[in-house]
Amino acid sequence: MTPLRHYFSLIMVLCSLSGNAHGALNVVVSLKPVHSLLASLMQDVAEPRLLLDDSQSPHDVSLKPSQVRMLNQADLIVWVGPTLEPALSHLLQRQSFEAPILSLLETPDLNLLPIRNRHEWRSHGHPHDHGDSHPDQAEIPAMLDNHIWLSPDNAAAMVRHLTQRLIELDDTHSEIFRKNSRNLLNRLHTFDDELSSQLKPIANTPYIVFHDAYQYFEAHYDMHTVGTVNISPEQLSGARHVHRLRQTIKERGARCIFTEPQFEPKLVHTLVEDLAVKTGELDPLGKQLTPGPDCYFSLMRGLADNLLDCLSGEIPK
């Protein structure tokens, strides 16, 4: 190779290395609702990558080798927390990744709610009258409900926090991130007002959910859940709990029981047998939605629409 050709070859290699080092920001996000918020924030810069596919549950997922590679290639890893994502939590603790790892439970100004137990459901008609803007961090892994995105106020807090992290990682696009953040916060505010008006007529109507994933939504919109089929996907109901739920439906006048698309609804059909109660479906993760900037809003709209549809109108005799 002549000296001139050697020189140009060296320049091409250096340019290639430089392009990799300063390429598009590679953000990997575990869950679809949070991915949606980041997709809005990163518009005109890059597309965040969604870690889990629709066939995988965050509760017990076993990541594929391609998904582990995705984490290894990331510039930032964003997840929610260990109560919702125990398998990912174990992986992040066990394996070393070069990228910074951001748990959204650490977001400033979140309204965080503790996980409820069955005693609370039996003792209180409105078991979400408590909250803590930021409890002791040591309590987070075992005690906190991780479905934080179902409160629009929490979503706004996460948007502000994520914006700062994106700017720290890629300050050359800081103005775009700030503009996208302002637009997203305005959209969230307007959307929240719309949902508040939509849900107001059914605010005091009792209903039962499949598992206890919705208390942030309930607390924000003053909804009236009176029971849950399963406390969590890991805690399946026995005959005694089924009997108590049937009593709750009768005594509290629950109008609807909601299933979820990722879980088998057979137990719900047993619960409603011979009872004047409707069934509907709620999806806290957006399993059936297309990822992207609109996904979060479609998810929240779907919850509101399905609640309104099931809780209004006539109850079957």
UniProtKB/TrEMBL annotation:
<dbReference type="InterPro" id="IPR006127">
    <property type="entry name" value="ZnuA-like"/>
</dbReference>
<keyword id="KW-0862">Zinc</keyword>
<feature type="signal peptide">
    <location>
        <begin position="1"/>
        <end position="23"/>
    </location>
</feature>
<keyword id="KW-0732">Signal</keyword>
<protein>
    <recommendedName>
        <fullName>High-affinity zinc uptake system protein ZnuA</fullName>
    </recommendedName>
</protein>
<dbReference type="Pfam" id="PF01297">
    <property type="entry name" value="ZnuA"/>
</dbReference>
<keyword id="KW-0813">Transport</keyword>
<dbReference type="GO" id="GO:0006829">
    <property type="term" value="P:zinc ion transport"/>
</dbReference>
<dbReference type="GO" id="GO:0046872">
    <property type="term" value="F:metal ion binding"/>
</dbReference>
<dbReference type="InterPro" id="IPR050492">
    <property type="entry name" value="Bact_metal-bind_prot9"/>
</dbReference>
<comment type="similarity">
    <text>Belongs to the bacterial solute-binding protein 9 family.</text>
</comment>
<keyword id="KW-0406">Ion transport</keyword>
<keyword id="KW-0864">Zinc transport</keyword>
